[in-house]
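Is 3-isopropylmalic acid placement plausible here? Inputs below.
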Amino acid sequence: MKIAVLPGDGIGPEIVAEAIKILEVLRAEGISLELDVAPVGGAAVDQTGDPLPPSTLTLCEQADAVLFGAIGGPRYDTLPREQRPERGLLRLRKAMDLFANLRPAQVFPELVAASTLRPEVVSGLDILIVRELTGDIYFGEPRGIRTNGAGEREGFNTMVYSESEIRRVAHWGFQAAMRRQRRLCSVDKMNVLECTQLWRDVVTEIAPEYPEVTLSHMLVDNAAMQLVRHPRQFDVIVTGNLFGDILSDEASMLTGSIGMLPSASLNARGQGLYEPIHGSAPDIAGQGKANPLAQILSVAMMFRYSLHRSDLAERIEEAVRSVLAQGIRTADIAQAGEGIVSTGQMGDAVATALRAH
Ligand code: NAD
Ligand code: IPM
Ligand code: MN
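Reply from A.M.:
I modeled the complex. Tokens:
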């Protein structure tokens, strides 16, 4: 199994190093894994001037899966847009057609108290956000900053979805719901935006193909509120690129920390890119404070969705669970008075637990 490893910037390399410890445990058991590390984001800009060098893209396209850390940082925020780290990630998603982004938000029982919400609101929570990842206002043309007729600058972007783009990710939402509680909530802003009126129409049109799934629709502002009011009402949420970005960061706090949420970004050929939903966290980079569990849980998703080893995915998730049960906490998930471990100590603890199971 060939894995392209793209550490990126900020805490990216720190948490990817912990994920590699997990892969090394499995390799020591005889599982054949070839890891090829390549630059992306700001690290690639520094080396080549391009946040997604052609050699990195080729490596990803030829791999069975891509393990991605995080990209970005204040140092790069003033570069021309095409040279910014974020463009590297967006181009990679687009080039590989990774349109289905799965972002599961599950509350581990041991972390119920780590959430900023009351225990009775979050305990037992298990939701899956299916975020469309290659369309929407992220990629729509025209876009830019121009001078208008009154001589002032105006910024503009285009929110656009074709029906085929909506249909393929909606099928993902329905199929995921079929494997879970069979409830799908499609989130849009159809009361204002034509683009999302089409979203609602297309999702509604394909619903008859999934008679066992209960489909509901919700406006995104209400969805943001409902996620903190009563999050367990949701099973699977399917939504567009921008709304999914925002709602998944919100959902992560239900689980205790954004450092807990993994993701899988999949194309129709079964290729996948696996990354935490959070960013490069420049405020804590280089300090050994980052929680590597989102990255490690992304490795579990990689075994499940691209490498067809659900057994290994479950072992990794079980190892994470057992570490949390032992009370091992990075700063972001620790309660007052609880001891805190570093990024590296957390990775070591999961590796040890994995060896034992
Ligand atoms: P962020 O997700 O990097 O950080 C938000 C907050 O969460 C920060 O306080 C950070 O310290 C904390 N945090 C994030 N991950 C954590 C972890 N694993 N453990 C503990 N705490 C963690 O978002 P931001 O600060 O808005 O963005 C920083 C940079 O990251 C920007 O350049 C942005 O473009 C980029 N970004 C990249 C990705 C990606 O690579 N997929 C995702 C989001 C943001
Ligand atoms: C994410 C990030 C990215 C996004 C940025 C870095 C381009 O926020 O993966 O959630 O907006 O998709
Ligand atoms: Mn995001």
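Short version: The chain has a mean pLDDT of 97.
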